[in-house]
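Q&A log
Question type: sequence-to-structure
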Amino acid sequence: MIEKLKRALSRKHQPPPGPKPPISGPGVRCVAKYGAPNTAMHLPFADIALWPDTVPIIMMSGCNWSASGGGQRPVRMCQEWQRGGCTVAYYFWREKGPAWSGGVLLLRPDQIYDYIEAVKGRPGVLIGTLPEQGIVNVMDLLHGAGWTTVYDVIDDWEAFHESGDMAHYDRGMERRLMADADVVTASARLLTHKVRDWTSRDAILVPNGGPAEPVPDCPRPEQLVIGDAGTCAYCGWLCGGWFDWDLLLRTALEMPDVAFNIIGAVDGRHHDYMAPNIHYHGELPYPTALTYLKHCDVGLIPFRLDGISEAVDPIKWYDYIACGLRVVATGCLTELAGRKGGLVADRDAESLSPWIEAALAEGPVRGVRRYLQETCWWRRSQELLAAAGVRISNPPERE
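Response status: OK
Response body:
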């Protein structure tokens, strides 16, 4: 069965071009990347199976480990589970590992079944976040091994497909994952409604999260541009169809004395949206991005009015609030309505300038420590594992 699934996965997900990293027997030579503590180390998967008193967790994600500077939900969840004492492996079908990152093992596609064979002897948890055949195969295998399987609905993938951002989407496959997983969780209220409509079962709401404490004062990065009348920032993914480039440009042209700092990987389209007060910084490591945000006044979420944005609990919201920023978002972001520190524009607004002016007048967001502790990634990671019947203890520094 294992060999059959390996062949199926290799046909669906061809490894990236170039030589394969060396593999020897049941173990791998792990070359450090993404800030891993060791330059290289050898750890047979069989040794991982012998680690005592740990819960094995496999995250099958739709993004690579370093996406958005390492700030995406699957990555942040894995980091917290590892801190809580779990044995965590992270799989993305384009991951170039193997590697260690802060105690999390990053797996290549050709390694996941060898890893499963090593750890499936004790109860664990599988979390899948993207409806694709590899996750279905692994879920079927681990169901028979007594694992708890979780489908974590983190976006409206059907809306992605309809907007042209996810050509390979299979609606029937996602319905199957929603129906067959032991537990279904979702990051936004509208996504729980979708699960209910499709399967008649209740998904458990586990929203996104952010830092556990306000981001401390820090030196201002030299590349950050400060505006005479205020400083705005956007930090996040820029390569999808949901970012409203026209809205950004119109707003910036109406507010020439406000600086607009845009943080995130770009794909070239930004060349059509240049203005003297729009400054593109590219993708930054997550900790570095927070130092930029800390010196801004307003955090922007300029998403388009479409189905993708309706069902989003933006991670950047929590990062902005942790940095003391007022948040201005487009009217499609219904999840943000009524949240302290946020201003949601009218749905038909052609510019965000009135709301930015109001946010600048209100000044920094203060008194958010308790809110951050209640919505931090550590709390969210506990909530998701609790839905799967697993309890983990606070790391020492958080007790």
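Response note: Confidence is low (pLDDT under 50) at residues 4-42.
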